[in-house]
Amino acid sequence: MKKLNKFALAASFLCAAGVAKAQSSVTVYGLLDVGMVAQTNAGNLNASTWGNSGSPINYPGVKNGNVFGFMTGGESQSRLGFKGSEDLGGGTKTIFLLEQGFSAATGASASNGMAGNGSSTSAAQGGDNALQGMLFGRGAYAGLSNEQYGTLTLGRQQGLMLQNIGSYNPVNAQMFSPIAFSGTYGGGGYTDNAYVSGAIQYAKKYNGFNLKAMYAPGGVAGNNSAGTTSGFQLGYEEAKWGVQAIATHTTDATKLTGITYGTGLSTSGGTVVPGNASPATSTSAASTIPTTAGTNQILVTLANTSALQLTSKFQATDKLILKAGYERMFIGTPSNFQMYSGLPVLPSGFSIASWTPNRNNYSINVYWVGANYNFTQSLIGSIGYYYAGTQQSGTQLSGVQQFQSAMLDYYMSKRTNLYLGIGNVNTSGSNVQPLPAGSMLSGKTVSTQQTYGVGMRHTF
């Protein structure tokens, strides 16, 4: 009997050890950001990137003027996610993440307001296919993490620049900061670069230094460089200051430059021709006049993009943190336009009406500077100035955007805060927006816009 008890006791210890070695956890988390927004010189809010909220630059529309409405994602995009890990022993664990963005105004998955999503009826609406038609558009990856050797993840992930910007942006709010809102800056030149699908990332921290490397193969038959993304980051952070340097490149990056939409009318031969106002006799007879909102037909511009980002922060006092950054983006002609021009759909499932190669090599320089100040443990103020200048090249004209932003956050608890934000945009050159025919100010241009918002953010 004693022997049996000993064996039973030993077996129980082995079972317990096996359970401990393979311990796993799954966390459901999320964020809800809701509020109200007012904008000057704006189009309809429901035609904007965040569904039923505005954007820092929300100019042309069928109507144009002052607007007031519901704001979703004023500070952060609402989201729902799942993340977890399994302890494999020896300091190694398996990790995973699945994250979806959504509109708190409608409950719909995050979109850019493209036609057919119940948000826009514009026949030409720019946007970002990164969050279009994807269940987990904000992240879907798995990997291995080791305390000594670092972390390796594979799947859909934020680009290196987007991962870095949050910590070095003085006014880190979507509605009131161009580098928080715009995937162009976060993506290193094109909005679609902000998130990288099918990416492999390695990250390692050591004595304050941090290193990251990312690569995403293109998966194009016969050409291993087509559609690839690569990036490298090196930085150092300690208690009072930090610096980061990032370089990225994407071969054949995509940018959505417009949409024609419609349910499509069949030709006599049965071919569907989207966007027809009347039955067509052939595919070439398709008109550009849309019918009713339905199947999305997007217009895609293809380019090679390269970018360099330098960021810094310094805690000057116990209450004051100074932040600054510089980003230079180069937009060039695509390397493999001929390999894409015949593809009928994007990976997100949206039909392509036409492919256009970028024909100009030009640069965009972005600078920002600002500060965060803790008035109390619960009340935090932020101010920021942002400058984005496009250099003239060929048919690409020069232009400047200047943003001034201010924000107050009041934390009611660790998970809930109220915020008040103000933003001003001034544009010149090619960034001045002509208002379309049919607008309230038809024939005029818009060179300035103000945004005022108040909201609440809750995390769980």
Secondary structure blueprint with pairings:
Blueprint: H1 2-21, E1 24-42, E2 65-72, E3 79-89, E4 92-101, E5 139-146, E6 150-158, H2 160-168, H3 178-181, H4 183-186, E7 195-206, E8 209-216, E9 229-237, E10 241-262, E11 265-266, E12 272-273, E13 295-315, E14 320-332, H5 337-340, E15 351-357, E16 362-374, E17 379-390, E18 399-411, E19 416-429, E20 433-434, E21 445-446, E22 448-459
Parallel strand pairs: 13-15
Antiparallel strand pairs: 1-2, 1-3, 1-22, 3-4, 4-5, 5-6, 6-7, 7-8, 8-9, 9-10, 10-13, 11-12, 13-14, 14-16, 16-17, 17-18, 18-19, 19-22, 20-21
Helix-strand topology string = HEEEEEEHHHEEEEEEEEHEEEEEEEE
Strand order of the largest sheet: 1-3-4-5-6-7-8-9-10-13-14-16-17-18-19-22
Number of helical segments with 4 or more residues: 5
For the secondary structure, the number of strands is 22
Radius of gyration: 24 Å
**Strand count, sense and closure of the main sheet?**
16 strands, antiparallel, barrel
Secondary structure: helix percent: under 10%
> What general form does the structure show?
globular
Strand content range: over 45%
N-to-C CA distance:
52 Å
Give the structural class. mainly beta
Instruction: Please tell me the overall pLDDT.
Output: 78
